[in-house]
Automatic annotation (TrEMBL):
<keyword id="KW-0436">Ligase</keyword>
<feature type="binding site">
    <location>
        <position position="187"/>
    </location>
    <ligand>
        <name>UDP-N-acetyl-alpha-D-muramoyl-L-alanyl-D-glutamate</name>
    </ligand>
</feature>
<comment type="pathway">
    <text>Cell wall biogenesis; peptidoglycan biosynthesis.</text>
</comment>
<feature type="binding site">
    <location>
        <position position="181"/>
    </location>
    <ligand>
        <name>UDP-N-acetyl-alpha-D-muramoyl-L-alanyl-D-glutamate</name>
    </ligand>
</feature>
<keyword id="KW-0132">Cell division</keyword>
<keyword id="KW-0961">Cell wall biogenesis/degradation</keyword>
<feature type="modified residue" description="N6-carboxylysine">
    <location>
        <position position="221"/>
    </location>
</feature>
<keyword id="KW-0131">Cell cycle</keyword>
<feature type="domain" description="Mur ligase C-terminal">
    <location>
        <begin position="328"/>
        <end position="458"/>
    </location>
</feature>
<keyword id="KW-0963">Cytoplasm</keyword>
<dbReference type="GO" id="GO:0008765">
    <property type="term" value="F:UDP-N-acetylmuramoylalanyl-D-glutamate-2,6-diaminopimelate ligase activity"/>
</dbReference>
<dbReference type="InterPro" id="IPR004101">
    <property type="entry name" value="Mur_ligase_C"/>
</dbReference>
<keyword id="KW-0133">Cell shape</keyword>
<dbReference type="Pfam" id="PF02875">
    <property type="entry name" value="Mur_ligase_C"/>
</dbReference>
<comment type="similarity">
    <text>Belongs to the MurCDEF family. MurE subfamily.</text>
</comment>
<feature type="binding site">
    <location>
        <position position="460"/>
    </location>
    <ligand>
        <name>meso-2,6-diaminopimelate</name>
    </ligand>
</feature>
<feature type="binding site">
    <location>
        <begin position="112"/>
        <end position="118"/>
    </location>
    <ligand>
        <name>ATP</name>
    </ligand>
</feature>
């Protein structure tokens, strides 16, 4: 319980009706989740206007309302707080309500199109291995020390973030690594958090359904660095076209990592094989089980951040060599007859291109590469033809299938994808709407030493068909099918 007055500290208030000297039991932005004594923050969303639920939340016992417009009827026993931007106000309120936990640990945010989960998770793993109690907020899960919690978003809403951080503080967690998605920044889910550092991985095509243009998408990502405190570090990929753009207006201390250009943390790939990478970082040789150039970038980001957070260089290199693959990121199994199946979360054109180029660069014989891939429904349509084009260019056989169709017609999604296949590749691909059948067909087609790439769903253990979620695990399915053949 906290007083409304304290909770509103630092919130830009336009006007207030009623008393701020009242106790608040719960902060919520959802009418379906209100308890007696709650503060309800009304947000204008894409599907609903939270202001339309004000009567309902009051009848359920809410005692205070934060809103962008006062309702027509003002009740004496309720406090109404008018703000310019409810989403931003919510984030600051959530921070205050949970005791501003981000100031009590070292919080590092990772942003970029691809590699956020990998970098954040491996930093968490590395710090845990080093004996430092750590936390993780990522697409796959929220971890507090060794405890694991489920997530629904890459960057959760600001209440979930602050509640999780507060639990971390309670459990003496010293470092927290979190993914910062562009939706998260745009919807102010991360506003009011105090970061110790920010890491940029790369910027390529994704989410143009939401951000409309690439420059809007880039500017949203940049905003995260613009708002970092001056004591923080801002670590960027200097080889990425937009890497230096991220630092243009930041007050934070600037650092770079790169494989190609001059950088503070400079690496070189010595060997890139199926068994792993051999890298030279700052003149020291390093072996890692992680595969592919893109992982060399991820590891450089991890190396730089770990050093900036105070771990000795030689210790960082030792810990990096102990890291295993993150679930659903180049996770592979080899069948008794020698077929390799790789499950990877590549759900953007760039990720798919990187993974297929990596597979092509490390294959030793004349194996066939068979790719099974789909694109999510209710998401960016522009990436669909691009992903089909990349898959057919860089594989010997392609099965276009469903990812999470959500509320879209799977057949229509496949038609969008097919638009990207060049006529010379028409013979290379088939469409099989049912993802299980698609994986089964790939397993039946594969001969000794062939490589099957199952892309797009990685660690996900479900498939979303319409509004229904069914159990579905690419890795488990491929493993079982290959062991039967
Ligand atoms: C497009 C998007 O990001 N939408 C997010 C947004 O929903 P919205 O704007 O549609 O909200 P809305 O449903 O219209 O509701 C408006 C307000 O009314 C409230 N409401 C609504 C109904 C009701 O009965 N009562 C009620 O109070 C809602 O709680 C909300 O406060 O705010 C919601 C509450 O925080 C989020 O759950 C929701 O995420 C949706 C489910 C989603 O799928 N988001 C994805 C695209 C996303 O955020 N992805 C990113 C990046 C992924 C990546 O690349 O890694 C992520 O960080 O996960
Ligand atoms: N640095 C990188 N550059 C390009 N592609 C990468 C990089 N790291 C990983 N990938 C590819 O992108 C996929 C997703 O990686 P990861 O889950 O780490 O990214 P993410 O940014 O967390 O994605 P999301 O936006 O869904 O949270 C991987 O399975 C791999 O194919
Ligand atoms: N966090 C990303 C992941 C997409 C993964 C893919 N399997 C899909 O469902 O489209 C998103 O919500 O856009
Ligand atoms: Mg992620």
């Amino acid at each position: 319980m906290k007083s409304l007055k304290d909770i509103l500290s630092q919130v830009e208030i336009k006007s207030i009706k009623g008393s701020a000297e009242i106790d608040i039991i719960q902060v919520s932005f959802d009418s379906r989740d209100i308890v007696k004594g709650a503060l309800y923050v009304a947000q204008k969303g894409l599907l609903f206007d939270g202001h339309t639920f004000i009567d309902e939340v009051i009848s359920k016992g809410a005692v205070a309302i934060v809103c962008q417009e006062f309702p027509k009827e003002i009740l004496d026993h309720i406090t109404y707080v008018l703000v310019q931007n409810s989403q931003r106000a919510l984030a600051i309120i959530a921070s205050n309500f949970y005791g501003n936990p981000s100031r009590k640990l070292k919080l590092v945010g990772v942003t970029g199109t691809n590699g956020k989960t990998t970098v954040a998770t491996q930093l968490y793993n590395l710090f845990q291995l080093d004996g430092k109690k750590s936390g993780l907020i990522s697409t796959i899960s929220i971890k507090i020390g060794k405890e694991v919690f489920g997530t629904t978003h890459t960057t959760p809403d600001s209440i979930t973030i602050n509640k999780s951080l507060a639990k971390m503080v309670e459990e003496d967690v010293e470092y927290c690594f979190m993914e910062v998605s562009s939706h998260g920044i745009h919807q102010s889910r991360t506003a009011g958090l105090v970061f110790e550092g920010g890491i940029f991985t790369n910027l390529t095509h994704d989410h143009l359904d939401y951000h409309k243009t690439f420059s809007e998408y880039r500017d949203v990502k940049k905003r995260f660095f613009d708002e970092l405190p001056k004591e923080a570090f801002a670590l960027t990929n200097a080889d990425d076209k937009n890497g230096m753009v991220m630092l243009q207006n930041t007050n934070a201390n600037q650092y770079t990592y790169a494989l190609k250009t001059v950088a503070d943390f400079k690496g070189k790939i010595l060997e890139n094989q199926f068994s792993g990478l051999v890298l030279s970082i700052d003149g020291q040789e390093l072996y890692t089980k992680l595969i592919g150039e893109f992982n060399a970038y991820n590891l450089l980001a991890i190396y730089g951040a770990a050093i900036l957070l105070g771990i000795e260089k030689i210790e960082v290199l030792r810990l990096i060599s102990m890291l295993k693959n993150v679930d659903g990121r180049f996770q592979y199994t080899i069948s008794p007859k020698g077929v390799i199946a790789i499950v990877d979360y590549a759900h953007t054109p760039d990720a798919l291109k990187n993974v297929l180029e990596t597979i092509n660069s490390i294959r030793t014989n004349n194996e066939n590469v068979i790719t099974v891939v789909g694109c999510g429904g209710d998401r960016d349509k522009e990436k669909r033809p691009k992903m089909a084009s990349i898959a057919t260019q860089l594989s010997n056989q392609v099965i276009l299938t469903s990812d999470n169709p959500r509320t879209e017609d799977p057949v229509e999604i496949l038609k969008d994808m097919e638009q990207g296949v060049a006529p010379e590749h028409y013979k290379k691909y088939v469409t099989i709407t049912d993802r299980f059948q698609a994986i089964k067909t790939a397993c039946q087609m594969a001969e000794e030493n062939d490589i099957i790439l199952i892309a797009g769903k990685g660690h996900e253990t479900y498939q979303i068909l319409g509004k229904t979620k069914i159990d579905f695990d690419d890795f488990k399915i491929a493993k079982e099918l290959l062991n039967q053949s």
